[in-house]
Amino acid sequence: MATISAGSVASYSSQTGFVTKYRPLSMHFNASKTHMNFIDLKASSSICIQSDASLLGKGSIAALQASYLPKLKFKPGRLPAKQSQPRASAFKVAVLGAAGGIGQPLGLLIKMSPLVSHLNLYDIANVKGVAADLSHCNTPSQVIGFTGASELANCLRGVDVVVIPAGVPRKPGMTREDLFNINASIVKTLVEAVANNCPDAFIHIVSNPVNSTVPIAAEVLKQKGVYDPKKLFGVTTLDVVRANTFVSRKKNLRLVDVDVPVIGGHSGITILPLLSKIKPFVVFTDEEVSELTLKVQNGGTEVVEAKAGAGSATLSMAYAAARFVESSLRALDGDSDVYECAFVQSDLTDLPFFASRVKLGRNGIEAFMSADLLNLTNYEAKALEALKPELKASIEKGMAFAQK
Ligand SMILES: NC(=O)c1ccc[n+]([C@@H]2O[C@H](COP(=O)([O-])OP(=O)(O)OC[C@H]3O[C@@H](n4cnc5c(N)ncnc54)[C@H](O)[C@@H]3O)[C@@H](O)[C@H]2O)c1
């Protein structure tokens, strides 16, 4: 266990060559580059770190450690031999729907990333106050609020990553499909603006139903002649976050060790956690597989019902979306070891879009982790076949809407 005392460490991270490299199941330090998260988020007097559990997934704990490096007593061999100059925060991120339940905490989490130089917040209302509020956090990025269609182009110009959580959330009794009528138009309009102003950006679609909104976005980008399938992502990170959490609780595993690929789509039975592909290797009974699979599939509904009309998952979603943003920024920054699950154009199955683990690089998706789909259990193989008709229908509905 390392005990870290918090002291006056502001801007320390911009002077160290301390590095976190992100691997699916491990973390190590490297003096050649700097990928630190959450600098200047100062805790009270001391922080005890008992494990590698982290704020935004594996690796982030290293960022926290880096923030407190001056006071940290490292074991021999863990400090970089030579410290190099890190690169400055470099990336522009825009959040569309930034005044909402997801948008606000997501903005806060992105504001904490040292990789971000500019954070542009867009909404149809109430976003200037959110921007003013966030701008007082003493982290490097500059925050600007943009309100309404007339300011959307300025919000998007030169942006590297666009996150879209705009739209209405579910109420009890609704499925994600029920949101289609409203959110389809919102996503279509916003992606048109992305195509016009920052066609090279990574696009993260959070707005539901993701199974349809991603195909809508793809069609819009095609119509505009700027579609790059390697850079369009439906954000399914929350399914992975939930799967990791539920499995680690059930099997009493350290969270940092747990990595469950979740494939398919992002709605009901289309969400398929592959428990046979979990790391570390764990044996599940048939009952456990079916209980955990259902719990992950119903995670969103559990929150919708608990909120009883006040919306759907916002905080865990912001956490998950921020993790995906951070992964994208690390990939853009040249980290060659970034893997995430996402709902993307894919030829892993006979469906045009499919969620799977992908390797991210500077130009978006570099590889699909096709091995995850090999040697599935009977349960998983059946569930995969069962989800296809529903997922296909949602994809086609989205494409048809955008082609209208
Ligand atoms: N992908 C996932 O895992 C996941 C998880 C949870 C929620 N969601 C989805 O995320 C979306 C947002 O959820 P929320 O809880 O933040 O909702 P919310 O109602 O709290 O916030 C939505 C925000 O979008 C804004 N908005 C509406 N129309 C807009 C437009 N045309 N342009 C820009 N902004 C616009 C609203 O003003 C509001 O601030 C919903 O569709 C929800 O279903 C996705």
From TrEMBL:
GO terms for biological process: malate metabolic process; tricarboxylic acid cycle. The keyword Oxidoreductase applies. GO terms for molecular function: L-malate dehydrogenase (NAD+) activity. One of its GO terms (cellular component) is mitochondrion. The keyword NAD applies. It holds the Pfam family Ldh_1_N. InterPro entries: Lactate/malate_DH_C (IPR022383), Lactate/malate_DH_N (IPR001236), Lactate_DH/Glyco_Ohase_4_C (IPR015955), Malate_DH_AS (IPR001252), Malate_DH_type1 (IPR010097), NAD(P)-bd_dom_sf (IPR036291). Keywords: NAD, Oxidoreductase, Tricarboxylic acid cycle. Residues 92-234 form the Lactate/malate dehydrogenase N-terminal domain. Residues 236-401 form the Lactate/malate dehydrogenase C-terminal domain. Its EC number is 1.1.1.37. Gene3D superfamilies: Lactate dehydrogenase/glycoside hydrolase, family 4, C-terminal, NAD(P)-binding Rossmann-like Domain. It catalyses: (S)-malate + NAD(+) = oxaloacetate + NADH + H(+). Belongs to the LDH/MDH superfamily. MDH type 1 family. Homodimer. This is malate dehydrogenase. It comes from Vanilla planifolia (Vanilla). The lineage of its organism: Eukaryota, Viridiplantae, Streptophyta, Embryophyta, Tracheophyta.
